[in-house]
Amino acid sequence: MAEPLDPDVYRAAVAALGMKAAAAGRRAVPVSGISVGGCAEAIGTPRRGAFRRRAQAHNHPRDPRFGWICILGTRAGRVVTPTGRPSALLAHEYAHLLAPNSGHGQRWRAAVTALGHPAEAKARRGR
Ligand SMILES: [Zn+2]
Ligand SMILES: [Zn+2]
C-alpha cells in the first residue's frame, strides 16, 4: 500500500541535492513528497497505482502531483543511504524534476551528472 514517507527521513538528502543543483547553476526544485510502496496517487487506497519502473517522478508540469517521487519498495534505505546521503535512486528521480518531460535524454543526463551520479547517466544512455 502506498504511503507518504516521513519528510524527516529525506529532508536533508533532498536539501543536499538542491544545493548540488544550485552549485551547477540550476534552480533547485522542491520535492512535494515521497510515496513508498506505491504511487502518490494511490495513497489512502488499497492500490499501488500505475508503475512502469521501480520508481518514478511526477514531472509533467500539468500533473496535479508534480514534484512527488514514488517508489515501489518500502524501505527508507532506498531513498537515503545509511550515512544520510541521497541514494542513486533518489538522485535519479530528483534529476527528472530538474529536467521535466525529457525522459532519460540529454537534459536529464546532464542533471543527474550535476547531482554527482554520472554512472546513472551512463547506465541510461540510449534508453
Ligand atoms: Zn506516482
Ligand atoms: Zn528515470
**What is the CA–CA distance across the termini?**
29 Å
Biggest sheet: strands side by side, in what order? 1-2-4-3
Helix % is 25-40%
Mean of residue pLDDT values: 92
CATH architecture: 2-Layer Sandwich
Shape: globular
Main β sheet profile = 4 strands, mixed
Number of helices: 4
Tally the structural domains: 1
Question: What is the radius of gyration?
Answer: 14 Å
Instruction: Return the structural class.
Output: alpha+beta
Q: What ligand molecules are bound, each kind once?
A: zinc ion
CATH C-level category: Alpha Beta
The poorly predicted ranges are none
Helix-strand sequence = EHEEEHHH
Total beta-strand segments: 4
Jot down its keywords.
single chain; Zincin-like; alpha+beta; 127 residues; binds zinc ion; 4-stranded mixed beta sheet; globular
Describe this entry's structure for a reader.
The protein has a single domain (3-119), classed as 2-Layer Sandwich (Zincin-like), CATH 3.30.2010. It starts with a strand and ends with a helix. Helices cover 34% and strands 10% of the residues. The mean pLDDT is 92. The chain contains four helices and four strands. The chain is globular, with a radius of gyration of 14 Å. Helix 2 (88-98) packs across helix 3 (106-114). The longest helix has 17 residues, at 7-23. It has a four-stranded mixed beta sheet, covered by helices on one side. By secondary structure, it is of the alpha+beta class. The protein has helices at 7-23, 88-98, 106-114, 118-123; strands at 3-4, 33-36, 55-57, 68-71. Bound molecules: zinc ion (ZN) (2 copies). Residues 39-41, 49, 56, 58, 68, 70 line the site of one zinc ion. The site of one zinc ion has 8 residues, from strand 4.
